[in-house]
Amino acid sequence: MRATLDFLLRDWLTVEALCERPRFADHNAETFGAVLDTAEKIAKEKFAPFNRLVDLQEPHFDGEKVILPQATHDAFAAYACSGMLAAAQDYELGGMQLPYTVEASANAIFSMASVSISWAMLTVGNANLLMAHGTEKQKDVFAKNEFSGRWMGTMCLSEPQAGSSLSDVATKAVLEDDTDVLGARYRLSGNKMWISGGEHEVTENIVHLVLAKIPDADGKLIPGTRGISLFVVPKKIVDIDGNITGERNDVSLAGLNHKCGWRGTTNALLNFGEGKFKPDGKAGAIGYLVGKPGAGLSCMFHMMNEARIGVGLAATMLGMAGYEASLDYAKQRTQGRAITTGGKAVEQSPIPIIEHADIKRMLLAQKSYCEGALALALYCAKLVDETHTGESDAVAEAKLLLEVLTPIVKSWPSEWCLEANSLAIQIHGGYGYTRDFPVEQFWRDNRLNMIHEGTHGIQALDLLGRKVVMDGGKGLTLLAIKMNETIMRAMQMHPLVDHAQALAKALQRVVQATKAAWSTGNPTEALANATPYLQAFGHTVLAWIWLDVVSATATETHLQPSVPLGAEGAFRAGKLAAMRYFFHYELPKIDAWLAVVSSRDLTCANVAVDCF
Ligand SMILES: Cc1cc2nc3c(=O)[nH]c(=O)nc-3n(C[C@H](O)[C@H](O)[C@H](O)COP(=O)(O)OP(=O)(O)OC[C@H]3O[C@@H](n4cnc5c(N)ncnc54)[C@H](O)[C@@H]3O)c2cc1C
């Protein structure tokens, strides 16, 4: 994996060119490499060896505290100590001013070692949000203590009755004092469901970022998302210098969720303001307004690109973990004999299963999904760096591309790298279905990614309902321009001409299907098949990414079938084989997906509920 990561960063994305920008001027290829080496070392020592342990020793509540294995405490301490929490921050904040692309790459290494021990990334998202929208005092007291590793953070959006539809958030925030130094002080009451890292003792305090509604003059909650505001709610009350006062805020654990996977991260139902604790002698969780009243969701969405790239990368790295495990297994496991023209050579010894074409098919599928998804995630991460440090035209272009690609970078790896995990189990045969091998855990851990950060169905609606049609389809047009640039380059390379033509045809079909879906202007018809559209769009994007990686990095010699292998040759030939697999076995699937989109097939939409 590391070789592929280095190859994509260096040979494809030329990430060290970012060092020409003032913000990254102190960096170079060596410092980037050193960050990844450190991540690898810590991941190997503190994360990977405990991945199964945290799965078996689920978090539990002893009546007073949530208990996690010691390994989780140690892993967080090592991660914080490495400076990773503040990696992208300014030097003055103790940061390294690292490009997001490199930070995300280092985090990918941790995710692969143990996705569920790696929940410190939530803290980074929380603190980044405070840096973007908090007051100076909120940054000082809350964000800085998160970057240093003193406290961890959460994101409290979901409620038992409000998951996909956050407009139904019912947590209430009533103003208490708008002159508090930490920000206008409110009392919050309500329930937050599914809160990752919601309760634990890994750090002495937890900084919750909570979406809640401020009632209007009649005491009613404003319907829709307009009424949603954002609050910072510490588990333990702190003073204006960030000292813990000793008083508990009125945030209490209602229960832990027992999950299918990702068990190293606690997941909690939290009650705010139920009166279990009474800060200042009163029930109600104390929260400080972040940003403007009613702007809570837009503050949250500010961080969405990075959060969703993070989910896509986590899905990718779980896929990669399964790929590497099944590759090892396939080399060692012997079973069956080669099929020769004379039938099976029964007198010969069994062969390693990696020699069977069907096993190679499953390995190539995994490789094409996971390495392709990694390339896409790094491409999007580089767009994020562009939005932060690029020239103004490049910033606008990167923002527009991210609008269209974000639903894909989140969803595509969640679906297809999960499929990769299923194939990794299949390669292990019966052993894959046992807990003696790690692949079943990878699948269980990965199953979350199609659910959180906007479910698959919601991402699909966002893509077809908004992203490809907004501003007259500007985002889709720009993406098509980028794809055409790749197509033109590949057309100049003889062995890639067929692939370039196939991509051109796929792009044309996606554009036609987008128009056909919206041709009646009826959203019910257009969006009835949003998920097949997401799948076809995603496959087309991945075909483009693969063709771009290969056409930008390979010479004509690399593309010759008779190129002598050796380590470098085999590495290149592997990339080429994965690209070919994707074009021959995967890209043709888009026709079936787009057929129902284009014909606005209402089979699903119109079936009566009673028919089930
Ligand atoms: C392990 C885990 C960790 C999580 N961590 C956090 C966290 O830290 N903070 C946080 O705030 N939340 C968190 N979540 C919550 C997560 O974001 C929600 O589960 C998710 O948004 C879906 O909400 P829901 O579970 O209520 O499902 P629902 O919204 O009820 O959706 C159920 C199904 O209906 C579909 N559906 C819903 N609405 C529509 C529609 N309009 N059109 C078509 N289909 C629709 C969905 O796609 C889905 O398939 C976590 C969830 C889990 C499982």
Overall geometry comes to globular
- In percent, how much strand structure appears in the residues? 5-15%
Q: Stretches where pLDDT falls below 50 for ≥5 residues?
A: none
Separation, N- and C-terminal Cα atoms: 45 Å
Quaternary assembly: single chain
Mean pLDDT level: 96
Radius of gyration: 25 Å
Q: Let me know the number of strands.
A: 14
Question: What ligands does this structure carry?
Answer: flavin-adenine dinucleotide
User: In percent, how helical is the residue content?
Assistant: 40-55%
Helix-strand makeup class = alpha+beta
The largest pleated sheet is described as: 8 strands, mixed
Q: Determine the number of helices (DSSP H or I, runs of at least 4 residues).
A: 20
